[in-house]
Design brief:
The structure holds two protein chains of two kinds.
Chain A: H1 2-5, H2 12-20, H3 30-50, H4 67-71, H5 103-111, E1 124-128, H6 130-133, H7 135-151, E2 157-161, H8 164-172, E3 181-184, E4 187-190, H9 196-209
Helix pairs in contact in A: 8-9
Chain B: E1 2-10, E2 18-23, E3 44-47, E4 66-68, E5 72-74, H1 84-88, E6 94-97, E7 99-100, H2 103-110, H3 114-117, E8 122-126, H4 134-146, E9 150-155, H5 164-170, E10 173-178, H6 183-190, H7 195-206, E11 211-215, H8 225-241
Parallel strand pairs in B: 2-8, 8-9, 9-10, 10-11
Antiparallel strand pairs in B: 1-2, 1-7, 3-6, 4-5
Classes of the chains: A mainly alpha, B alpha/beta.
Chain lengths: ~210, ~240
């Protein structure tokens, strides 16, 4: 607790270990996702307990919709290796930088919660690159992704197709863009695992897509 | 079987959404190889020097393979593969490439994304050369097929013709590399001549395999006028052999 109260000061190695060496929500790890599912269940129970007791209905819902920026000033350091005032996860999405298995794993993690109880909505944000979705196979893959999402019980997903501006940010802050997948001359790679030259080349190529 | 990497949500290793299993080990040594960590069939330690924060945790090494001057130096020749440095490294500077799985374990992993395969997606074996570990690769393909998963194999075509019959019966789509049609140049830039590869391709064609040819274009090597022409010639010849 002292380490967290001091915002990981003097414990950078331990902080990085906590952040990088453990699985967090969004990687299709059952053990982790059960914790998230239990939190959703407990929260839904609490909402139900007061529902219709007053003039207001209080159905459960999970969302931030951009307020993760305003709320970040109130956030203290977490044991997951995030420092105070870092940006919270958006909506029901993984904490930035902790999801490493790609979009299908994020969806699997999300759909393990009992979403029927979050009747006020539980939005999942997914970022994809234009190169991952263009062309005939891109369309086919998007259809499969959406069908899979619905078949697993998902009902609220926001797909982002990231542009060059985001890629430049990913160069500056790779830890926040672990799952951005890009096309690299015939196969997919996570953008942050490529070296600078490759990254610059991809930015140039993607630019010509627009 | 020995696996270099497993990547979910792949959209460029065959149709639809796929899980790609990169098997370790390749009989070719292409000068332009884009996955050089998959060439050797042995386990290897990946070292990302740019991620190192100099915490010195890797000094736990019993063989003293890590030392620090102005930067972190890793002497691979001393490494005894105890993986202790990988366990303590907080940033992923050190990672293992080459984990051993059974076909059943890999089936479990690939089935995690069954909901997303739909009518088009599935599993792709890549590498390395998947058929360098032929027995295990075929076992995995068979497990996928019996579980209704579409199978694709990215191959360099350099494998024993004996396995071709089994491979064809278990593979829905071959993504078949033809690195070069000129045998001498093939040997110069990949380390082996291409006779076996082209012979296997024609055998596969005759057996009714579903194959998509892939030709690599490299500046000053295969992007020459001559090579492009010979690739077209090969494709025409292949069309006739059907």
């Amino acid at each position: 607790m002292n380490i967290l109260q001091n915002n990981w000061e003097g414990y950078e190695t331990l902080r990085l270990y906590a952040f990088n060496k453990y699985d967090y929500f969004g990687n299709d790890n059952d053990e982790v996702d059960e914790i998230a599912a239990r939190l959703v269940q407990d929260f839904s129970n609490m909402c139900d307990a007061v529902n219709n007791k007053t003039a207001y209905m209080t159905p459960a819902g999970i969302s931030t919709f951009g307020r993760q920026l305003e709320w970040s000033s109130c956030r203290m350091a977490t044991s997951s290796g995030k420092k105070a005032h870092e940006i919270l996860a958006g909506n029901f999405s993984p904490t930035p930088g902790t999801d490493k298995e790609g979009a299908t794993a994020i969806i699997k993690s999300y759909c393990k919660s009992d979403l029927k109880r979050t009747v006020s909505g539980a939005a999942l944000d997914i970022k994809l690159l234009p190169s991952a979705v263009n062309g005939e196979n891109g369309l086919e893959a998007m259809v499969s992704l959406l069908r899979g999402f619905v078949s697993l019980g998902g009902y609220f997903m926001q797909l982002d197709i990231a542009d060059n501006e985001i890629l430049r940010q990913a160069q500056e802050h790779p830890e926040d863009y672990q799952t951005l997948s890009v096309r690299v001359s015939g196969w997919n790679a996570r953008f942050v695992t490529l070296n600078k030259e490759w990254q610059n080349m991809i930015i140039a190529q993607t630019g010509s897509d627009f | 079987m020995r696996v270099a990497n497993i990547q979910r949500f792949c959209m460029h290793d065959g149709p639809g959404i796929r899980t790609t299993v990169f098997l370790k080990g390749c009989p070719l040594r292409c000068a332009w190889c884009h996955n050089p960590e998959t060439q050797s069939a042995d386990k290897e330690i990946l070292f990302f020097q740019n991620k190192c924060i100099g915490c010195g945790g890797c000094n736990i090494c019993p063989a003293n393979a890590h030392f620090f001057s102005d930067k972190h130096i890793f002497d691979r020749s001393l490494c005894v593969f105890c993986n202790k440095c990988i366990d303590v490294c907080p940033t992923g500077t050190l990672e293992i490439c080459g984990k051993d799985y059974t076909a059943y374990e890999l089936l479990d992993i690939t089935q995690k994304d069954t909901a997303f395969y739909g009518n088009t997606g599935g599993v792709t074996l890549s590498g390395g050369e998947p058929f360098l570990q032929a027995k295990d690769a075929l076992a995995l393909l068979k497990l996928c097929k019996t579980n209704g998963i579409h199978t694709a194999v990215e191959t360099c075509g350099y494998f024993s013709p004996d396995i071709l019959k089994y491979a064809i019966s278990l593979t829905d789509l071959f993504l078949w590399d033809i690195k070069d049609t000129d045998s001498n140049r093939h040997k110069k830039y990949t380390g082996v001549s291409n006779e076996r590869i082209i012979k296997n391709l024609f055998l596969a064609d005759q057996s009714g395999a579903n194959t998509r040819l892939r030709c690599i274009l490299v500046n000053n090597i295969s992007k020459s006028k001559y090579s492009s022409q010979s690739s077209v010639f090969l494709i025409e010849l292949r069309g006739l052999s059907h």
